[in-house]
Amino acid sequence: MPDSGPALPLCIDLDGTLTHTDLSVESLLMALRNAPWIVFLLPAWLIRGKAHLKSRLSDYADLDVSVLPYHADVIALVSEARAEQRRTILVTGSHQKYAEQVGRHLGIFDEIMATRADYNLTGANKARALHERFGDQGFEYIANGTVDLPVWQLAGASVTVNAPRDVVKKVGLLGRPHKDIPGSPTSARTWLKAIRIHQWAKNALLFVPLITAHEIQNTAAFFAVFIAFLCFGLCASATYIVNDLFDLESDRYHARKKKRPFASGAISAKGGIIGAVLLLGSGFGLALMLPPAFQLALGAYIVSTLLYSFRLKKVASLDVLILAGLYTLRVIAGAFAAGITLSFWLLAFSMFIFLCLALVKRVAELIELQKRGANNPSVEIRGREYSTQDIPILQTMGAASGYLAVLVLALYINSAEVLELYHSPEILWLIAPLLLLWVTRLWIVTTRGYMDEDPIFFAIKDPETWITAVMTGAILAAATLVTL
What are φ and ψ of residue 311, in 5° steps? Predict the structure, then answer.
């Protein structure tokens, strides 16, 4: 038996070991993003074998390996082995195209062994290749999963990285030198961050028709809207996951977004796909309890969101209109769930105020980008058709949209519909200056660079917004109950 000391060449797995992600899954996601129509070709490619599938996906996906979430401890082990004059080999089931790019980027491998168009280098195939190359127990192997057990059985020494407990136990029972680098289990907090639970606050818009129609005490309607709230929350979380999965690379270029669970590798892309399917299924399952009109609205929301994630967010101007439409669609869906007739005034107000918020989001992104590229007068948002030169016009459009929303409110106060709902509609005029103040402050905060990129999240944390909301609620109650 060969000695298991430092003379053994060190063989390192890539997916889930050297990186916190799986390049085969990422190449699939990027290929689908770049050419959605290949979804119909995937079965035919798979029938010809996984190696052929990976090869064809590599034709449609160019990954930037410089921003991948690498495992620092594994890189340290490889660097240590090189210092000891040991040979280091990257051995991976990912396609050779990506393996070679990783090798060139890191510069710490003497050799690359990877999947080719005619050979899938995983499991038993990898074990066979390494046995032929180095002999029985003639190498040390670093990997992370059950599929690597055949390789460890032939290795002279082993390192498990982020491996399940049963895998670590089985490798330890082989009776050869073994080191374990445990991974951090995915916490509930990480998953809540991935599904963006704080974004569920947006779904409170579903209750707006109930409130404006003075049906908040209608128990059946309230329960229906609450179920609708859960449906939108679950489905929206699924779309956030899908969006993050298709934006992995662009998120990794971003100073803040690179810390998101999928971009950082805290949750695997494969886990994200499973989570999205479960959330979407649960949301649509609950929707069966509500009227068909609501189900159509929910379906329209999902389709619109996915189209936005795939393509439409890259189209300047259309992207903010879509975002505003998605907010408004929540209001429409709430009316459908409660069986309430939609008000023209509510729809008009929603259209302008949500366009204002969508433009705040885009301007906040551009101002943050401008800070990071201060020496460049025209820096573009990666994956968007905006540059920092667009800030003034977007600010003008956003402020105008906010003030138009106030104008719609003023016209509503003077309409015949108000007389049917409020004893003293004159009191409602107090809302107009409050809303004007809030919109004005919103844009001042944004222009000064203090806005979170999501204005809804900012509003949740902002005391002045809460004060405005409480005062508005008090004015509505007074207009309803007090007779002047």
Answer: -135, -50
Q: Where is average pLDDT lowest: 2-6, 26-30, 47-51, 377-381?
A: 2-6
pLDDT tens digits, one per residue of 465-480: 899 989 998 998 898 8
The order of strands in the sheet holding 140-143 is 111-115, 88-95, 10-12, 140-143, 157-161, 178-181
Question: Which of 162-176, 329-343, 363-377 is predicted with the least confidence, judged by mean pLDDT?
Answer: 363-377
Highest mean pLDDT among 284-298, 307-321, 340-354: 284-298
pLDDT score for 317? 80
Alpha-carbon distance of 308 to 325, in angstroms, equals 11
Q: Are strands 140-143 and 111-115 parallel, antiparallel or unpaired?
A: unpaired
| DSSP designation for 39 | G
Pick left, alpha or beta for residue 199 (phi over 0 → left; psi -120 to 50 → alpha; otherwise beta). alpha
The token pair that represents 85 in the structure block: 């004059």
- Taking a C-beta distance cutoff of 8 angstroms, is the pair 259, 253 a contact? no
Give every CB contact of residue 8 below 8 A, 6+ residues apart in sequence: 2, 86, 138, 139, 140, 156, 157
* Cα gap 112→95, rounded to integer Å: 11
Give dist(CA 11, CA 21) in Å, integer.
Answer: 18
Q: 318-344 as b/e, with b when 16 or more CB fall inside 10 Å? A: ebbebbbbbbbbbbbbbbbbbbbeebe
pLDDT at position 241 is: 94
How many separate helices (H) and strands (E) can be counted in the chain? 22, 6
Question: How confident is residue 343, by pLDDT bands cut at 50, 70 and 90?
Answer: confident
Q: Domains in the chain, ordered, with CATH?
A: 10-181 (3.40.50.1000), 185-342 (1.10.357.140), 363-484 (no CATH)
Global confidence as pTM? 0.82
How many Cβ atoms sit within 10 Å of the Cβ of residue 316? 15
Token pair recorded at residue 148? 């690597």
CA–CA separation, 66 and 104 (whole Å)? 10
Q: Which residues contact 64 (CB under 8 A, 6 or more apart)?
A: 249, 252
**Residues 71-90: tens digit of each pLDDT:** 999 999 999 999 999 999 99
Alpha carbon distance 183, 265 (integer Å)? 11
Distance of CA 471 to the CA centre of its chain: 35
pLDDT at 5 over 90: no
